[in-house]
Request: fold
Amino acid sequence: MAAKGGPVYKGVGKIPDRVLFLFAGLIYAFLYAPILVLMFFSFNSSRSTQVWTGFSTQWYGELLRDDSVLAAFKNSMIVGVSATAIATVIGTFTALALSRHRFRGKTFADTAVYAATVMPEIVVGVSLLVFFVAIQFPLGITTIVIAHVAFTISFVTIVVRARLSGMDGSMEEAAQDLGASPVQTFLRVTLPLILPGVMAGALLAFTLSFDDFVITFFISGVGSSTLPLKIYSMIKFGVSPVINALSTVVLVATMVLIFGGSRIFLREGKGGEQAN
Amino acid sequence: MGLAGLLTPVTIWLGLFFLIPLLLILAYSFGTSNVYGGITLGFNPGNYLRVFDPLYLEIIGRTFVIAAINTLICLALGYPLAYFIVFKGRRWRNVLILLVMVPFWTSLLIRAYAWVVILSGNGIANKALQFFGVTDEPLDLIFTTQAVMMGMVYSYLPFMVLPLYAALEKFDTRLKEAAQDLGASRWHTFWRVTFPLSMPGVIAGSILVFIPSAGEFVIPDLLGGSRTVMTGNLIQNQFLQARDWAFGSALSVMLAVLLLGAIMFYIRRVGTDKLEGM
Reply:
């Protein structure tokens, strides 16, 4: 490390830089090696997920023929799309209320929104289970959608609010001065301005919903298995390359989504800090 | 759009499906479970007293120790990485941070599964150990505390790196230059200027790692054994197997209160003023 307190010599930082570079390389290897091993064995020709015996795509074939996996995927899509649609609308409204209005109880509203993001998932899961059983609401796709909306609203709110915090209300005021109605102002001025934030919030909500295991685990009913629940039962039931094949498909889809959506992420990341 | 119109949907949804369920488990936690899995409401502090059974205290203690160690390891590994990406990443900066985002967005379940395969009996980890002559016989790597720790660090590292990146990215490098012009060494500059200014990221990252890892039940479920049961597993067991909902509710309430208390304490200790940039 650099000499403490003494004068700065050029080059003192060179050695730490090299160490830092090596360190970063090792961390990336740590992050990616397990995933790559997982993908590698999805192409194994035998049932083993540990001993390589040759190349084959049979597990992908088996995956496509597995009706329960397809059903779980369908459920995940239904839940993800419905929960995202509802949570994005409610979250955007909430963000508008919190950043454009002053009102009594605002601190409470703020706290409630953030509390929903820090509450441990398992507590949210069991409390919803207790709630649905108490009101005798049958567990299934509907309860999963309700729960996913409840835990994603706050994330949408935070992301959209970050976008709003960088804007003052002058554009809206100008629109209204020029005779636009509140609805027109919202649709023609506010919404286009915050759209990147809304999109980023929706994408976040969809991913959170699509990946959620813990909350869904407690409130899914018979026949309403989502993809994460299916993967969990496959791991528990017995490890086979079919899980590797499924994981590979999910991983590749995630990467395509991220690199495709990276423009939104990187732009919103700048605003997002303020909301953390 | 009026304020009332904007706030009504969130009030209804979070009120009905977040707040009321929480109040319900609070009420259940003082109830009494009966033999058929039902609950008689009342004021029975017995469920909370049961928590002090050494068996359960050990599980709760272990949960917080594992979560704290996980947070420290993630900080120790994540800070240099975030620092590297921001200050040494140059034109690769965006790609490097996207590469951290990929695991962040990937299902935790799949990433835990990767370690199930790697650490199991004749998995790659054991092969490597045998290859390098560390051991002749396959070791019991999976279903250990170390396996749980490994899965935890692997799963939560990106949660630490992203807020640290966001905090360091805002950092004005002219401050570093100013410190060095005034005679501070690089080491000194880091501890006196860069690190304190990245505190919001450290706090946000620590909270993002600590909370879910203390509530974790998938990782100990898949990678841990009977000696690495965490509070999450205990709660899951009370609700789905033992069907003692009153005790399960008491454990859930306690976990939530302890975690929120820990966050408040942590934020107080490091100073609320540091939270402003968040």
